């Protein structure tokens, strides 16, 4: 946009300069020629008094004195055919001047000014002053150079002013674009300043109105999720009481632990739903959190005859994800393994440091693999599930500056690679 504005201003100013300077340049050329012609005419007329008296030695002496000074060369054509002063051809214009008519005519190499002087008895004498082309254009180049410099200066100043104006407008437009990017990244507090022309203020106002509307709708959605999650507390309380009423056994302990885990998850959902989006994403030690969750799921893996292979980096391994969010991600990945593969299916978990900071979590199983091409899409599942688990993992990874990749394992099954960005520095 800035370049287009500069091109537009340059075009308009250039047209104006051409329309203004070209006539001035032609006028300078005409004035120089008129000045030289007027000087030559005055020089020729200075001999008129002498030529009108006679054609004797006085006229010859006057012509020699005039040509002895710097100026246009003078030639006197006498009615007898003699020529005094600077030698010159007897042109058609000279012959016409012998009829008693003074005139100016173009000649080879310049311009000749002819003054006819009627003598008392001998006839008409013609005084010729010659102006060369160099004299006709003397000072024109300098005048043209000055006009060119003035035009270049005007164009440069115009472009400078246009560039400043374009910068100010582009700064406002860029600011609005940055606000839109911040909104897209989840910063709903971003607002565009109402500055600049009326059109830009309208755009900024519309963007701010949209941001406020998004904030309100998102807050309503969070409250709706929180209310829905809160409604789950009643049946969970009943399940916990039922679990506490079971005879003490390993199975009762597992049921109680599962109910407690579900209560913690519901509580976390309520807190997350009511947390502002501009809160810091948090930071935790990925090595410790993954090790703890693997220990929790290893009990169920042992009951289902699953072989768990793990290769975890040494702590600390900081990532830009809160502990609760990372726990949810690991649980979602491992829950998918248990939910979508038959009992006895082995799986592997690897955690390593990521180049540039963060961590890479790799979960591979030997099951049937992904049955749906859009398994990472929110709400899409190839089995009887909500399809939200992998989407939660993906969004958590992207908020930290990472990503999630789905692929088939080397020996069949599914492979999920999750990259978490580094924590705050």
Give a quick set of tags describing it:
56% helix, alpha+beta, five-stranded mixed beta sheet, 425 residues, five-stranded antiparallel beta sheet, 16% strand, 12 strands, Heat Shock Protein 90
The percent range for strand residues is: 15-25%
The CATH superfamily of the domain at 280-420 bears the name Histidine kinase-like ATPase, C-terminal domain
CATH fold type of the domain at 280-420: Heat Shock Protein 90
CATH architecture of the domain at 280-420: 2-Layer Sandwich
Could you say which overall geometry the principal axes of the C-alpha atoms support?
rod-shaped
As a percent range, the share of helical residues equals 55-70%
Strands, count:
12
Name the average pLDDT: 82
Main sheet: strands, sense, barrel: 5 strands, antiparallel
What structural class is derived from the secondary structure elements? alpha+beta
Tally of separate helices: 12
- Low-confidence residue ranges: 276-280, 374-386
Q: What strand line-up does the widest sheet have?
A: 2-1-5-4-3
H-E order: HHHEEHEEEHHHHHEHEEHEEHEE
Instruction: Return Rg in Å.
Output: 50 Å
Distance linking N and C termini: 37 Å
Question: Which CATH C-level class of the domain at 280-420 is it?
Answer: Alpha Beta
């Amino acid at each position: 946009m800035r370049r287009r504005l500069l091109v537009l201003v340059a075009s308009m100013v250039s047209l104006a300069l051409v329309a203004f300077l070209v006539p001035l340049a032609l006028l300078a050329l005409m004035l120089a020629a008129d000045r030289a012609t007027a000087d030559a005419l005055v020089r020729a007329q200075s001999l008129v008094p002498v030529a009108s008296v006679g054609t004797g030695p006085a006229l010859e002496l006057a012509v020699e004195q005039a040509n002895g000074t710097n100026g246009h060369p003078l030639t006197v054509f006498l009615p007898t055919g003699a020529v005094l002063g600077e030698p010159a051809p007897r042109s058609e214009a000279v012959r016409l001047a012998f009829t008693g008519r003074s005139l100016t005519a173009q000649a080879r190499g310049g311009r000749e000014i002819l003054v006819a002087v009627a003598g008392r008895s001998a006839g008409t004498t013609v005084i010729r002053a010659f102006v060369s082309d160099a004299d006709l254009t003397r000072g024109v180049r300098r005048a043209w150079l000055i006009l060119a410099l003035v035009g270049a200066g005007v164009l440069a100043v115009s472009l400078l002013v246009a560039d400043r104006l374009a910068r100010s407008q582009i700064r406002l437009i860029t600011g609005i674009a940055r606000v839109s990017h911040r909104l897209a990244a989840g910063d709903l507090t971003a607002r565009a300043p109402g500055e600049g022309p009326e059109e830009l203020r309208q755009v900024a106002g519309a963007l701010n109105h949209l941001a406020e509307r998004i904030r309100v709708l998102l807050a309503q959605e969070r409250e709706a999720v929180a209310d829905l999650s809160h409604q789950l507390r009643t049946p969970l309380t009943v399940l916990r009481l039922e679990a506490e009423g079971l005879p003490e056994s390993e199975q009762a302990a597992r049921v109680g632990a599962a109910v407690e885990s579900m209560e913690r998850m519901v509580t976390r959902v309520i807190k997350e739903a009511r947390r502002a989006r501009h809160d810091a994403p948090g930071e935790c030690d990925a090595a410790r959190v993954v090790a703890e969750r693997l220990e929790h799921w290893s009990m169920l893996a042992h009951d289902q005859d699953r072989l768990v292979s793990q290769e975890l980096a040494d702590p600390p391994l900081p990532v830009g994800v809160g502990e609760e969010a990372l726990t949810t991600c690991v649980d979602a990945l491992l829950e998918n393994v248990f939910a979508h593969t038959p009992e006895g299916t082995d799986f592997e978990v690897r955690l390593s440091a990521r180049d540039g900071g963060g961590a890479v979590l790799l979960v591979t199983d030997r099951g049937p693999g992904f049955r749906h091409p859009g398994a990472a899409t929110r709400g899409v599942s190839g089995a009887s599930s909500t399809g939200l688990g992998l989407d939660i993992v993906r969004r958590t990874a992207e908020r930290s500056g990472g990503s999630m990749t789905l692929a088939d394992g080397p020996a069949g099954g599914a492979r999920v690679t999750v990259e978490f960005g580094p924590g705050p520095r």
